Each structure stands twice: as C-alpha cells, then as structure tokens.
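User: Show me sequence and structure for the first protein, then do the same for the second.

Assistant: Starting with the first protein.
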Amino acid sequence: MLNPLEYLDLLAREAAPVEFERPILAARQAGAAADDLAELEEIKVAALRVRALLERRRRREEELSALYDTASDLAGLRDLDAVLRAIVHRARTLLGADVSYLTLDDPQRGDTYMRITDGSVAASFQTLRLPAGAGLGGLVAVSGTPYATADYGQDPRYRHTAEIDTGVRDEGLVAILGVPLRLGSSVIGVLFAADRTERAFAREEVALLASLAAHAAIAIDTARLLTETQAALAELSAANTVIQAHSASVERAAGAHDRMTALVLRGGGVEEVAADLVDVLGGALLVLDATGRELAVAKSPAWPGGLPGLDAADMAEAVAASRGAGRSVQRGDAYVAAVVAGADNLGALVFHPSHPLAGADQRILERAAQITALLLLFRRTVAEAEGQVPCELLDALIARPVRDEQALRTRARRLGVDLDAAHVVVVAAGRAEGGLRQRAVSWARTFAAGRGGLAVAKDGRLALILPGADPAAAARTVAKELSRAVGDPVTAGAAGPASAPAAIGVHYREADSCATALIALGRAGEGASNTELGYVGLLLGDRRDVPAFVGAAIGPVLDYDTRRGTALLKTLEAYFGAGGSLSRAAETLHVHVNTVTQRLDRIGSLLGADWQTPARALDLQLALRLHRLSGPLST
C-alpha cells in the first residue's frame, strides 16, 4: 500500500537524496501497480524539489548569518588583520572551497600582493605577486569585474606567467573565482575562492563572494580612516602640548622681564639677577667676568650639587660663539651667554638648567646677560663718578718722580689693584696716524680691569699695568687680542716685573722704547719685552734710556756689590776682558781661580743661568761699558 507521508518524514529528517528512493523500491517489492508507482515517483520529485528549496534557503540563511557576523565585526573593528582573516575564512566555508585568499593593490609597484590566505599550504603561493592584467586575479584588479574558471591551467582567457602558474601549481589549484574589492570607482584588491578539482561556480556563489568582498573593502577603508583619525588626533595632541609649553615659557619670560626690570630700578646687583634667573628657570648659574673670575653663583633649592664647569679653551670658544651669534649657545648640559656691551667683553653667564630650555627660556637667559652687562657698566660709571678713575691713577704712577706712594696704593686698592704685587707694564702702539682710536682705549680698559690692572691712553699710545711676572707673554697677548679687536695691527712692548709704585714709571719708559724698537725693526703687530730686544731696543728706542738699560742688564749685580761691598762687577768685567778665561781673569784680579769661580757662580744666581749665552753676554758687556763711561767701577 502506498504511503506518501513517508516523504514528509524524510523532509523533516533532512534525509539525503538517496533515501528518497526507498519508498519507491518498497512499493515495487510489494507489487504496487504501475499507476501507483508513477504517482509515487511524482511525489518523490516534488519532495526532492521541496528539499532543494529548503537546502537553498538554509544556505541563504547561513550566508546572511555570515554577512551579519561580518558586519558585526566591522562595527567593532579593532584589528584589521583579524577582520580580513574572518572574511576570507567565511568565504572558504560558505562556498565550500579548498582555499580562499585576498590580495591588495600596491600603488608603488603597480601590482597586487597576497595579504590573507586560508587553507593554503604552499609558501610560494602565500608570497605570490600578480602583475597588472596577469592571471585571473590581475585581470580582475585591472577590469574591476568578477572572473571564474573551472580549470585555470587550461583556460586561455588569462595571461599566464611562470611565477603565477608555479604558485598555482604548487598549491594544486584548479578552479578559481575572483571578485574585486571596490572603494567607489577604485579597485583596491581581489577576494578569491578556489578548489583543487574542476568546478563551475554558480551565480549565487559569485554574488556571495562579491558581498564578502564589499565588506572586506569597507573594513580596509574603515581601518584607513581610523588610522588617519588617530594620527590626526595624535598630531593635535602634540600641537596642543607644544602650544601649552610655549604659552608657559612666554609667561615665564614676561614674568622674568618684569622681575629683572624691577630689580634694576631698585638698585639690585649681579647677585640678585643670578638668584632671580635660577628662581624662574631652575638650575645653577655661574657669573664670570672677562678674565673668567667668579662674580656670582646661584642655585635653585633642588639643584643636586656643584657646577660642572667648562675648561678654559671650551669656555673661550663658547663665549666667542655667543658673541658672534648674538645669542646663547649650548655646550653639553650647559648654556653660555656672553655678557657684552658694544665691543667690550664683560664676561659670561654659564647656566646649567634642571631641564632642557625652550626657545623662550633661552631668551630669558639672554635677557639676564643684557641686564648683567648694564649693571657692570653702571658699576664702572659709579666708580668713575666717585673719583676712582684708573686713568688718573696710572698717569700718576708713570709720572716722574712718583709722589706719595702710600696714597697711590690706597687709590689703587679701591680699584682692586695691589701695587705691591708683581706687575708688568705694556705699551701698545698702532700704525694709524693720530694713535689708537677710542675703540682700542675702551678695549684696553676692559681688558686691564678684568685682570686687576689699569690702562690709560697717553701720547697716542696705550699704557697698561697688568698683574704678572712675564712681560713678554703679556705683550704678545695684548698685541694679538687688541689687533683682533680693532681690526688693525697693534704693536706691544713690555717691561718688568715691578713690585712697587716707584718702579712702574721706569718700566713704562722701557716698554715704550721697546714698542718703538719693534716698529723700527718692521715687526708691527707683534709683542716683545725689553729684555728680549736687549741693546737693540736701546739703540732703536726714541728715548734711549741708558740708566734703565744698565739697570735691567746688571742692576742685580750693582745692588749686591753696594750692599755687600763685594767686587762682582769688577770680576764680571775682567772675565769678559779675558775672553772667558778663568785663569787670565784671576791674574788680572790678583786672586785665586777658585775665587773667580765662586764669584761667577754668585753672578749666575743674580742674573740667571743664561747670562753667558751670546745674546745676554752682549747686553752685559754693553751695560758694563755704559756703566764705566758714566762713572768709575765699584770695587
């Protein structure tokens, strides 16, 4: 007996198509009539159509669910790679493909490259690149149209390349479907589904893969927009930070300007400027004068320790760089700002901040340097207004004769000069008519004051007294630096050292003669001492100060004979007269040779170990001759 309800049971159980043959087979075995078997066949066909419809709807439901999940992934996009991998995997699952993969466009190289694969086993395939128009994927990328092939290797519609065919063969792919990833009118990549056996892809499968490709394109564009937005936000945040920092530094600069202005108006000094600066910026500040001498030190409470300083050469280079640029300069962790007023180098500020300085903070340091320069100039003006004028003091020291030495010492002490310490006298002469100009005078005063000395313009030349015991070195320094300052060769002669006010005038005349001799010798722009020129300076000097030359050459021996009643001078003359022979000198003096030797040793201790060198010996003999002509030799 026929039972059509069996097919409803088969449909309810979602039985396989082969099971739909069982009712017909059972009816035949039961001897059913031909009409009944034909009716039962029609019922089977109808049931199979219903089953196929239900299968399509189930697949459609799965596809819609997959698209819904993909849309959900896009809504919560966090990781582009994760979303693309999910899309490629769903494409493989829904189409029942062996492999699915996605390629993206590379605008720089003009081709597409493999971005994501699912089900791939060949490394050569996973790194494949498809030139524009080559292979199925290259054609899809160029045309923007889906393409499919049941057997790629045998399909002549596509331009085959060795690289693509090798990758496809290594992966074992036969049937391939590719659809474009579109953003507006642009194709940015291709989504593929492929099988390792021949397969004809249905229209519905093409549509499904195209839908997944659309979602992939949206994911890529969303990720790009998100990246650009994040970058823009980061730039805005950085810009806001910079603006806030700049605003804060401008406010600090304005506050520092007001504080320093008020400080000057209330009569504050260099120490107060230093304290204000470290209070505003934090760190440690060292204020130096032109000689590198410390004028003031200030540290913020949080400063950890001492001041890491620069060596002399680095400091000189940094100050010169700051003067040349008109700005502060950075050297390591320190900032150096020159303290200048016109051509005058007054010193420097060496600042070690507790944090790197912004541009406006450096302007605060430079403003502090300007204020310091004003205060130092004001201090100098006040000193001159109080009658402590270095020019008048030096004029009095080089006058002849010197009167009231104690009063001169007192006046000098007020200017920071100790006349009882060793000093050298330097006279500088220019080659221009009318003598050295005011710029040179200003430089000389600053140079001398910074070293605890004095300077004055006299008879078109400059006279300086400087602490020290090396006149030659002082002369060369003045000649070099003053020539650079005025842009014209300056010649400097020096004499000394002097350790009493009365000796300064004598050394001034010797230094002046030395400068004249240097110019006469064609050595303009150089510096030397009177002892270096010796008798040449006496011959070429315009004043020819014989007593000064004699005193410089043999003065210590003359003084020793006067105090002790010895005959060293006579022994020296006899020694030179005997051509340096000890025995002949002894015969002339009627003494033993050992006595001559002992006297010469004493002379060496008074005149220096080099007294017998040709240059010194010549000066000594000339001095002996001049001394003999001026009076009898001491015995």
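Switching to the second protein now.
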Amino acid sequence: MTAGVRQETHDARGGRPAAGRVRLPVLLAVVALLAGVGYRLALLTFDAPATNSDEATMGLAALHIARGQDFPVWFYGQSYMGTLEAYLAAPVLALTGPSLFGLRLVTVALYAAFALLAWRLTLRLTGDRWFALLVVALLALGSDRIVKNQLIAGGGYPEMSPAAAALALLAYDLCAGRPGRRLPRWTAWGLLAGLMLWVDPLVLPYVLGVGAVLVAFRWRELRGRAGAVLGIAVLVGAAPLLGHSLATGRNPLAAVLAAAGGGADAPAGWADRLHGGLLLGPSLGMGFCSPGNCATWQLWWALALPVLLVVGAVSAGRALRTGRADHVGAVSAGRALRTGRADHVGGGGAARPGSAGDAVANSRVGAALRLALVAAGTATLVAYTLSGSAGRTPVESSRYLSCLLVSLPALLWPLWRAARRLAENRSRGPGRRVVGILAAAVLVATVAGTGYATYRAAGTASAARAAEARHTELVGTLRELGVRHVYGGYWTCNRLTFASGEEVVCAVIDDELRPGHDRYAPYRRAVAASAAPAWIAPTGSPLAARLDERLRAAPGSLDLITIDGYRIYLARS
C-alpha cells in the first residue's frame, strides 16, 4: 500500500471515482499556495517587513561566500546559529549584488516549500484533501510575526519549518513501508536532521519527536544498512558544527545549548515568563495578532492552544493504542473490503487496492506522528515559557515559537473531524452536536483571526517602503560625500554596510560613544584606521542627542548634515 490516502468518491453506480470532486480541493490548494507566495512577493516589492542589521549580517555573509572571501560556519559574532541561509542566498547575490529582494527570494522559496510539504504531510496523516486545503489556506495567511519569521533572513527561522515538515513526511513514508528508494529516504532524513542541529536547535523537539517514531516503527531496519546510512548522513549534515568543534576544542553539546539560549538570559520573574510564554507567546507566534501587539480579544488562542494540545494528544494516543481508524484511508479501505467496491489509496501516486489491516497500520503511523507533533509543540511551548526571553521580550521573542505551525495538522484534526461529523449529520446525541458546533466555531475563528492579522500586517507595507527609501537616501548621501568609514549604532551599522555593498564600512558604538558589539571585527579595524570617520545617528535617537551635546560643547568640531530620518556628523580635518 502506498503511504497516504486518496479520498475519492464514486458515482451512484459504484464505478468510476468522481474525479472532479477529488480535483477541486487540489485546485483550491494550488490557488491558496499561489496566493500565499504572491502575498509575500508583494511584500518584498514594498521592502516589507522592515529589515534590520541582523538580516544584513546574514546578507554580508552571503556576499562574502559569493565572492569567495569567507565561508562562515556561524552567524558572525557568535558561535551558534548556522549560516545555511547565507549559503543558499550566495548564488542569488552573486547575480544581484547586495539586494534585500535577492536575499529574500530564498526565504520565499522556503515558505513555498513549507506550504507544499504541509499539504503532503496533512494528506499522509489524515487522508482528507479538504482538511489539507484548510491547512494550506491558513499557511497562506501571514500576520506581522509570521511574515517576519518566514521572510527575514535573520538566521534559522525560514528553514526550520520546511525542514521539520520534510522530516515528518519522510518518517511517514519510512514507517509505513513505502516501497522503493528506502536508503535515499533514510539519507535525506539524516542530512536534514544534521543540518538542523547545526542551523538552530529550536527545531530539535520536532527532530527528536519524529525520530522517536522512526525508531519505534523501524528499529529492526535500523539495525542494518539503514541505521549506518542514517548515522553517516546525520554526521554529514552536522559537519560544520562538528568541524568547528574539532578545530576549536569546543564540546558540540555546548554549541547546541548556547544556540538554545541556555543560561544566557537575564533573570525574569515567573509571572512575566508565564504571561509572555503562555498568554502573549501563542497568539503572537502563531499569527493571531496585529503588528507589534496583541489586543485582548486576540489572546483567545492562548486559551485554545492548551486544550488543542491535550485533545490532539488524547485523540492520537487513542488511535495509536487501539488501532481504531480515525484516518480517512483506513475507513476507505475497510469499506472497500466489506463491500467489494473498487477503492483507491495513496497520497497522490499510483493507487492499488489494499487490505483494511494495511490501512489501519498506516493509520497507526499517522497517529504516532500526530502524537509526536503535539509532543514537540508542547515541548517548544514549555521551553519558551521557561526561558528568560518570554519574560523580558515577549513580543519579539515569540519568534521562538515559529515551529508550532508544523503542528497545525495534529492540532486542528480533531476539530475538523468533529465539525465534519456535524456537517454530515453524523453527530449522535446533543453532547456530540455541541462539540461539533464548538469545533466549527474554533475553526472559523482561527481563519478569521489570522485573516484579520494578515490584513493589518499588509497595511504596514507602505511604512516599510518609506523607511527603506530614507535608508537608500542615507547610503546615496554618504557616497556623494565620499564618506567610506563611519561609526553608528548596532541597528544602523551592518544594515548600512550591506546596503552599500561594503563601500561604506561601519563600526558599532553605544549611546555613550563607547565601542559596541561588532559582529565582523575587520569593520572596526578599518574604521579605526580611518583618518576622519563620520558618525551616523537616527533622528531623535539617544545617540543623536549625545552627538548633539558634543557638537554644542565643541562648536566647529563637527559638521552636521541632516536628511530625512538621519543625522550625519562629519569630522573636520
């Protein structure tokens, strides 16, 4: 039996499947995917979401790789967070130069891959094309936090979700005994797992959860060539991390813990952590909030998510324990076996008849993976709530919950089943009807809430374009003035250096004009060697106020040039 389920209907004579009914959700899913990609490309044309120096740091790494100048293992200035995005973007920037659009074309492609993988994964786990359409439609939407996670090339976030979905999809095919290309699938799983260990351990709960399912269902196969191939592939994927560890003598586990932020956060009270982790975090991180904030009414998802995690775990656990078919494929194959009618199974490939036992076995695999996705989502939420970031910076740090989108099929499947039974008038008794109504209401509220947040996020595009225009004017002005070395704040420096293609090199200073955090040390050395570096400060910033004080204290020591949004202080020779 192939691994997933084609949910096909038959005409009144029990003959040929009603192909039109099968194709409709597929066509609508294609429309949803194209709409999601189109929305994100439209944001790119507006330079939205607004870029920052961290993204510029990844862009500089990509430029250095494209030029053969440097091949960084880690995000500049730290020993964690792998630079996979920079290596993916390097061929594009080799053609376009230092372009924000070129840098983000890679992240849009990663989003498209995630949506496609989510469609296939949902079909594998549930066999329901209409439900898979719902998942793709939700992923096509994009609130402020969601599009930042998916489009900003700041390290790790754009690639974690597609990698986790691919790992789960490969695991289903391997556990369900999908024939052909077994060793290539084991190799692909190992390479992805190793790469994610290097890139960002935030995805580790999904790697470990899906890996546990592989071991549980395929431990005999892992004792042979498959286990050797898997182990070698993991080592190859994690080679950058392991090579750096061997070269520096650093324990690889220390790098993983550092990437996870273990022990690095400033103390935060438990009240703040619980508020940020369990109330603000889920609503922000899963796309229900307006840009930069959550209204009280938008926090309802924080109450729904724990319930969905519990219900999803119970539903998947019951199906796994009892083998009861809550998978459309098992129901379809069982009906075919009882009635003798032709039925088809398969996630989209060639179909062939199968036994009810085979279908139930595949349903158990799907249930195990749904349970793994729920467990990984729970672990992600708990780890985030325990971190100091949830208490100190809950709005911005909600990006740590980005992988929760991978768990959507497992979280929403019980709701979909209950609502579908209600729609088909199969809910027996008032209790089940109430459950069906509540499930349908939550699904509608989910679509409406994320849709409204997407509308609000799209409304910020013009402001992002205006901010980028002001920054472009800054770069052009510095070029006209012949300024090549400057001091500026952290959020100014690498953005300026990347936008100018390193024609203007910036070293970081704090608001008291002291040396700041330079992610790329050669820039500081170059500015320090300059005879007359300039200073750059955003209008109205504390740094601008400090430089204005210096100008008043020593009139004539600096020449001030103001442009929209920035103040340029030129040293007099």
